[in-house]
Amino acid sequence: MEELVVESVRYSAPCVDCGAQLECWGVHGLIGGSLRWDVESMCSACGQITADCGQDLPARLRDQLLADNGPSTLHLPNPSGERVTVMRVLRAELGLGLTEAKAVAGHVLAGAYSGTLPEVECLARKLRGAGVDAVAARP
What we know:
This protein is α+β, with helices and mostly antiparallel strands. The protein has 4 helices and 7 strands.
């Protein structure tokens, strides 16, 4: 079983029951080969407890994760001759068309593709599964 890869972020949101400000903890993780977003919160005003698991990562909280933790970069130690395989994996995993996959593959091969650690590690695992040596790392 592969290691879990997670990053967390703390943020505020209004309570759905009473409107008071909640302190929320969100965890973005690569668990069992899938990306997930889990949130827990408890309202100190009314006692409402919420756990929301397996959702998509909201864009504003993705931005906060990147700001708080820094981006991770996908590195291919030996990128020569890997373009076709990289493009095939990108198309399958990111749902890209051929033109988009070609552009993103250029970023990957140049060591300029970045994202949250779970996102980049997920892609690195898919590339390794396709025979491409790939590593997710923070600068």
